[in-house]
Amino acid sequence: MDNATASNTPSGATIDPKEAAHFGALAAEWWDPKGTSAMLHQLNPVRLGFIRAEIDRHFGSDSRALKPLAGKRALDAGCGAGLLCEPLARLGAAVTGVDAAAQNVAAARAHAEAMGLPIDYRHGELGALGLSAYDLVCSLEVIEHVIDKALFIGQLAGALADDGLMILSCPNRTPASRLLLVEAAERLGKVPRGTHDWHQFATPEELRELAEGAGLTLGEPKGIAWSPTKGLHLSDDLSLNFIVTAAKKK
């Protein structure tokens, strides 16, 4: 975060107004798999595969169960128009989605209503909403867009139940991610221009330190890589993007 941004941001805020405006302007196309969020639609099944496996591991659910989150509460912080919230609801969770952009929340509510899914969507600063005791807290591809990463991770921790599961994902700050996720992806129109600031990407080591500061223990990250034959897939290669679990320290 630069000093100019910091000086214009209220104390205790994590939302960058410029970032909220950027993503809010894309709200109408969020659910179009060929629109400006096409990359998220390709990424979502990979993330969901990881999330489902970690849900089963953490909560001891049967991998064949259709609703492993039945009776549990799930929070998606930085939910956009609901691409993760809706699958979590279908897995049985009572879902709350929070986003910085009012346009995204409106699009999310409309889509969930059309799908018959009772998802509770909220707009605003996560820390101001009084959310707590969620069994599952997710924040995917969000940390790189907030103003104060430490404060945001602390707010996520505050929303997590003592025995809950947190799942985070973030682009890694490496030369490879700068070349492929920022320069190439934006130049080729895979993501809208201005979506990423490479300097705001977090490394796994930095995220681990942030988690420790918030009273969380980070698991072993898994990479999300790309190849011509597999497309996007889970990998041991962390150079582009990674997804990881966290839990409160015992």
Notes on the structure:
- The chain has 8 helices and 9 strands.
- By secondary structure, it is α/β, with parallel strands linked by helices.
- The chain has one domain (3-248): 3-Layer(aba) Sandwich (Rossmann fold).
- Strands 1, 2, 3, 4, 5, 6, 7, 8 and 9 form a 9-stranded mixed β-sheet that branches.
- Strand 1, helix 4 (85-90) and strand 2 form a beta-alpha-beta unit.
- The two termini are 32 Å apart.
- The model is unreliable at 1-10 (pLDDT under 50).
Layout of SSEs?
Layout: H1 3-7, H2 17-24, H3 38-59, E1 73-77, H4 85-90, E2 94-99, H5 102-115, E3 120-123, E4 134-140, H6 149-159, E5 160-171, H7 175-187, H8 204-213, E6 216-218, E7 222-227, E8 231-235, E9 241-248
Parallel strand pairs: 1-2, 1-4, 2-3, 4-5
Antiparallel strand pairs: 5-9, 6-9, 7-8, 7-9
Short description:
By secondary structure, the protein is an alpha/beta fold.
